[in-house]
Amino acid sequence: MNPRPSGRDHLLRWALALLVPLVPALVGYVLYFQRHTPVLDFRLDGRTGRVLSVPQESFADWAGLQPGDRILMVEGVPFSEWLDPAPGNYLVEVERAGHRLTLELPLIPLVKVNAAPLISGLFVALVFWGAGVLLLWRRFWRQEVRILFLLSQVLAVAALLLLAHPTGVRPLWMSQVCLVCFHLAGPLLLHHALTFPHPLGSPARRRWGLGLIYGLALVVLTSLLWGKPLWIRLGVLYPTFEVAAAIGVMIYVYVRRATPDGRRRLRLLLLGNMVAGGPSVLFYLLPSIVGSLSRMPAWAMGLFLVAAPLSYLYATVRHSLFG
User: Fold this and answer.
1) Which part of the chain is CATH 1.20.1070?
2) If DSSP codes are grouped into helix, strand and coil, which group holds residue 14?
3) Any idea which of 51-60, 64-73, 180-189, 259-268 has the lowest mean pLDDT?
4) Interior angle at CA 133, CA 257 and CA 274, nearest 5
5) pLDDT in tens, 215-257
6) Are 288 and 301 in contact (CB under 8 A)?
7) Where in the chain are all domains bearing CATH 2.30.42.10?
8) Radius of gyration of the chain (CA)
9) How far apart are CA 41 and CA 168, in angstroms?
10) Which residues are 94's β-sheet partners?
11) In angstroms, rounded to a whole number, what is the distance separating the alpha carbons of residues 191 and 242?
């Protein structure tokens, strides 16, 4: 039998309900942004207008551009003064081996050359969003579900803005929102692990510990936005530690605190979180910390991340995870 909702519960329900349309609205904006953002499908020196490389079967290749060409004029405007273009084909004057040619410069919508990252970002974001909304709708009165809802929405926003956009095209505000969401996700995940299914420690100790976790996350995020290279690497390290600590707490609860029936439920959650967090930490976050360029593509990381929300949904439906 569900507890009778109080006035505080009604207020909290409305506050959380206001967050539900956020991810769908961002999905719509991302699709609009990528349809109206022009990009080149070849490498170009933006200062000199020199064509550096042209992939075979690209739009630029079909237009006749070749490596070594130098773009002088675009629609009669000097290349250095050409600003704010829209997707389309533009007549350009090109210098090639001492001769001047008139060719077409194709500026194509980002969505046409960004299909895999865009699909990955949309898929991951909608899975996190849908799982969180469904759990909140069915088990709103459970505090751990509210935390999971916040965690799923934060991860949905971060995944959408990170996975769906190439680094060079992503606006600054999107990168900053990704950082904020990423550094909120770690404390929320650790918060969930410390309080469900078996709360660890006394209520006073949990309040003290969670206050420290969220406080450190705020300090790290503030220093990260400061922009110093050392702080950026340390800023990535802290949420990596939080994810590892959360998985460690889940393992401890599974081995030492859970009942046989509880282990059956936790086994799914532990497996889902390890599949979601393990490859992301080992092949994306840690290489980012050490500055390595050899790391998993961001869009491929999304294929592992969806294991976490799907494991919670399955455990809820199959094993009545939250009662």
Assistant:
1) 7-35+114-319
2) helix
3) 259-268
4) 40
5) 988 888 887 766 655 566 666 677 778 888 988 898 898 888 8
6) no
7) 38-109
8) 24
9) 13
10) 71, 101
11) 10
User: In whole angstroms, how far apart are CA 5 and each of 46, 114, 141?
Assistant: 60, 46, 8
Name the least confident of 11-25, 235-249, 306-320.
Answer: 235-249
Residues, the chain: 323
Tokens of 296: 């998993």
Helix (H) or strand (E) holding 165: none
Asked if 288 contacts 229 with a C-beta cutoff of 8 angstroms, the reply is no
CB-facing half-sphere around the CA of 175: CA atoms within 13 A:
11
Looking at residue 10, what is its pLDDT? 73
Taking CA atoms, 256 is separated from 190, 199, 205, 285, in Å, by 18, 13, 20, 30
| Distance (Å) of CA 214 to CA 16, 86, 204, 224, 276 | 20, 43, 16, 15, 22
What is the domain class of 38-109 according to CATH? Answer: mainly beta
Give the other-Cβ count within 10 Å of 159's Cβ: 31
Question: pLDDT for 122-178, tens place per residue?
Answer: 999 999 999 999 999 888 888 889 999 999 999 999 999 989 988 778 888 998 898
Q: Phi-psi category of 57—alpha, beta or left, where left has phi over 0 and alpha has psi -120 to 50?
A: left
Q: What is the pTM of this model?
A: 0.84
Report in angstroms the alpha-carbon separations of 154 from 47, 132, 226. 38, 10, 22
H or E segment and range at residue 295: none
Cα 194 from Cα 246, distance rounded (Å): 8
CATH classification (class only), 7-35+114-319? mainly alpha
Do 154 and 198 meet the contact criterion of CB atoms below 8 Å apart? no
Angstrom distances, CA of residue 268 to CA of 146, 161, 242: 20, 28, 20
CA proximity to 247, closest of 192, 202, 179: 192
